[in-house]
Amino acid sequence: PQAASTFLLMGGMDTFRQRFSCEEYVADAKSRVPKGSASTAILFVKEMGHMPTPELLGAIMQPMLRTILAWKTARRDGGDEAASVAQKHLKTVVATLEKQRIWSGRLLFTTASGKWEEWTFGSRHNNSNNRSAAHTRHQQQQQPQIQKQSQHQSQSLIEAPSSAAAPSSYDQLSKSYYERLKRGATY
């Protein structure tokens, strides 16, 4: 629906991409967004497979969720201020990925007027060989984490931790989610 707040995380190495080029894959997702939507973002990370690593998701999840909450506030209150707050959180997503110097890709998002904007990340810091080498090192570091995740596949992220009360705020909820990812939970 046009009023929905949506933040899509897509990987350039995802099997869902099938025979699409990276450009076609993003264009296809973009074409499915209702015209006039003012609260949609597509984050395309070239080096990501079907599932994001805990480090990637942990680094960008908070600003992604904050973007969605800002869009909801903008829709409810009708103010431009919340829309600019959403854009601030989108900048945080890109800055975080730039800082890690592992990831490259594009962030596309709709503005309050329903028009698309696009920001790229990663290409200024790394040429393709450096990105490939950094990604290979990153994947090698992740191997023990991936094995640990497969041992805990039955653990659900939806369950609240038994030793803690339900989170009372967004920050506690996202921290709880991130901590479960770090412990090897799957989703």
Write a short abstract of this structure.
The chain is of the alpha+beta class.
Write the H/E string, N to C: EHEHHEEHH
Total helix count?
5
Helical fraction equals 40-55%
The multimeric state of the shown protein is single chain
| Residue windows where pLDDT falls under 50 for at least 5 positions | 125-170
Shape: globular
- Chain-averaged pLDDT: 76
Outline the structure in words.
There is one protein chain. This protein has five helices and four strands, in the order E-H-E-H-H-E-E-H-H. It is α+β, with helices and mostly antiparallel strands. Helix 2 (54-77) packs antiparallel against helix 3 and helix 2 runs antiparallel to helix 5 (170-182). The two termini are 25 Å apart. The relative contact order is 0.13. Mean pLDDT is 76; it is low at 125-170.
List keywords for this structure.
187 residues, 4-stranded mixed beta sheet, alpha+beta, 4 strands, single chain
Task: Summarize the SSE layout with pairings.
Elements: E1 6-11, H1 22-31, E2 40-45, H2 54-77, H3 80-100, E3 105-110, E4 116-121, H4 128-151, H5 170-182
Parallel strand pairs: 1-2
Antiparallel strand pairs: 2-3, 3-4
Helix pairs in contact: 2-3, 2-5
